[in-house]
Write a structure and sequence with these properties.
Length: about 625
């Protein structure tokens, strides 16, 4: 018998609340219908998600079930509205209205969200799996799985558990995965609306606890789903025979190479039946995956075993030539690295007996990003092992003056470098501490690592105590605090974090350069005189002394309210939070402070010691290309 075409509630041309014009139906699922629509006032395409008429009618007047369904729909909007992340679908609006269908008035509940014209993650995964194609597994993991982990970790930081992660719920916007369908999402911050005996979601991707009590699931349920997705990518799509093992521990088929055996351990740990034995967080899953598939620059390069076997098949003369090329490349890399380090030392070779500050610009001062021939070979962004996004800061120069009027200003020229998009969060620092528990001791709220003070626990400000130590591990006390910048961390702790993840703290000059270039590229702070980055109203007049410039700096308003690191908009470099009163540790274990216009650097040898911790001081990391 042929399949009957799906009947949709809304017809083409229907306008909801005078704002959303239906263009075409896209899909119809068990609970909802999806339409391509147009936002009339902005003339842009959107996707409309509407609760299926048949789905509500299937409750046969059960008011409790209808109420629960509408509450989940409302919650989906609220959750999506809280998330701002490149891999999470953005919501624009929600509402309800009535439409006429077959002579009857029907109530319509809808969500308006981004329209993604592409396919979904399933399209990137061969039905038979990548199997032994190590190169393809690495490339797929870097291109798709790692960004998905980043997005899911952001959800968890906001106290949201998706609970229905599967390839069909991850859309592809070009090459960018976009997490969608928050219809059954939950979390401890959200009041339960699903009855404990109800099974909702997609069975093969569900952890066992979701079958027992949906309301008791936590982030480990999403870890289980992600482990199943990784399993499918390698071993092939789960068919009817294999869907009999929902909630069971998955294991790769034919894990007969060193690489696949290590990957199999990741899959087994992520999909452990006992959630107490499961990989505890998405961050831990990412760390394990990166240790197996390698750094981003090695994507697609193949395993060490594969490369070694390949080289052994070369003729001796070709092998010698290749080794010579490798040696030459190593020498060039070393020279560039030493040159870069020389610049960094020059940038930070300030006396520890005086306050260093950025000089107020005069009409004759100049701040010009230095052209750099190598920029074309550097990626505009990287991803760190802790999941942080790093943005490229192009070569440039800054003018630095001393507090003493007798000291000459110094021009510091810097090579390109990478800087974290945001400050390190409570969640990221807690993950770091938990991965270094063997080095850590906690006594009376003082966290020491390798004998040095890394962090002070307790209240950061009234009513805000983000990090706790209990049951032998560190925790973010409230899910909503996870995405806030870590505070009361010492310079020792910041440096240890950066070193652990293969990065470093930025120098004062680098921090200032990034802060000066970013607003200039965006255009919001560029003066007519050539991009100093300081508003003309605050720029010093000719002859202004450094002390007079300091008075301008300290007069700037200071932001004291805590907020998630992604709350502020990115500047022209893609960096967030370098303006408006931020204070951060830098490479000389000193503090740099940003105001609305300029900065003051306070050397630790004078007024700040590296074991001190402050309520409004965080940090971010940098990386030399």
């Amino acid at each position: 018998m042929g399949t009957q075409p799906a009947k949709f509630l809304l017809k083409k041309g229907t306008v909801l609340n005078g704002k959303w014009e239906v263009l075409d139906p896209i899909a119809k699922g068990g609970m909802a219908e999806i339409y391509r629509a147009r936002q009339i006032n902005l003339d842009r395409e959107v996707a409309l998600k509407v609760i299926s008429d048949e789905f509500l009618e299937s409750f046969d007047g059960d008011e409790e079930e209808i109420r629960a369904t509408l509450e989940r729909f409302r919650r989906e909007v609220m959750m999506m509205a809280q998330v701002r992340h490149p891999t999470v679908l953005q919501v624009y609006d929600s509402g309800q209205t009535t439409v006429k269908r077959e002579g009857d008035e029907r109530q319509v509940h809808y969500i308006a969200m981004e329209y993604v014209a592409g396919t979904d993650l399933r399209f990137t995964m061969p039905a038979e799996g990548f199997r032994h194609d190590e190169r393809a597994i690495r490339r797929w993991s870097h291109d798709y799985l790692l960004p998905i982990l980043d997005g899911v970790e952001t959800l968890h930081a906001l106290g949201i558990v998706h609970r229905d992660l599967k390839p069909e719920n991850i859309l592809l916007d070009g090459q960018t995965p976009r997490i969608a369908d928050f219809g059954i999402a939950g979390g401890h911050r959200w009041q339960r609306v699903t009855r404990s005996h109800h099974i909702v979601g997609t069975v093969p991707y569900q952890a066992g606890e979701q079958f027992l009590d949906m309301g008791e699931t936590d982030v480990r349920a999403d870890v289980y789903s992600l482990g199943k997705i990784l399993y499918e990518a390698v071993s092939g799509r789960m068919v009817s025979k294999e869907t009999a093992f929902p909630w069971r521990t998955a294991h790769l088929l034919e894990a007969d190479t060193p690489f696949l055996r290590r990957l199999d351990r990741i899959v087994r740990q992520a999909t452990a039946e006992d959630r107490n034995q499961r990989t505890p967080t998405v961050g831990a899953l990412r760390q394990s995956l990166l240790e197996v598939i390698g750094a981003e620059g090695e994507a697609g390069a193949g395993s060490l075993e594969t490369r070694s076997a390949w080289l052994l098949h070369w003729k001796p003369r070709a092998l010698i030539a290749a080794l010579a090329l490798v040696a030459a490349a190593a020498v060039v890399t070393l020279i560039l690295h030493l040159a870069s380090m020389t610049q960094m030392r020059a940038a930070t070779a300030q006396s520890s007996s005086s306050t260093v500050m950025l000089a107020a610009p005069s009409p004759g001062s100049k701040f010009v990003p230095t052209p750099n021939a190598s920029n074309g070979t550097l990626a505009s962004s990287l991803r760190g092992r802790d999941g942080a996004a790093l943005q490229l800061v192009p070569a440039g120069e800054v003018t630095i003056a001393r507090e003493s009027e007798s000291s000459a200003a110094q021009i510091v020229r810097l090579a390109p470098f990478y800087m974290d998009e945001t400050e390190v969060t409570n969640h990221q620092f807690v993950e770091f501490l938990n991965q270094n528990l063997s080095k850590v001791a906690v006594q009376e709220g003082v966290v020491r690592g390798d004998g040095q003070i890394w962090l002070l626990l307790g209240l950061v400000k009234e009513g805000y105590e983000p990090v706790a130590f209990r049951d032998g591990a560190f925790h973010v006390k409230e899910p909503g605090y996870a995405s806030y910048p870590v505070a009361r961390v010492t310079a020792y702790g910041a440096a240890a974090y950066a070193q652990f993840f293969g990065r470093r703290l930025p120098s004062e000059a680098e921090w200032l350069l990034a802060r000066r270039i970013g607003p200039g590229l965006r255009g919001s702070r560029t003066s007519a005189g050539g991009g100093s980055g300081v508003p003309a109203s605050q720029a010093g007049a000719p002859g202004n002394s450094p002390m007079e410039a300091m008075q301008v700096q300290t007069a700037a308003p200071r932001a004291t309210d805590l907020a998630p690191v992604l709350d502020g908009p990115p500047d022209g470099l893609g960096l967030r939070g370098l303006d408006g009163g931020v204070r951060e540790w830098t490479t000389r274990l000193s503090l740099v402070e940003g105001g609305a216009s300029a900065y003051v650097v306070m050397p630790s040898a004078v007024s700040r010691l590296p074991w001190e911790a402050f309520a409004e001081v965080g940090f971010r990391c940098a990386l030399t290309p």
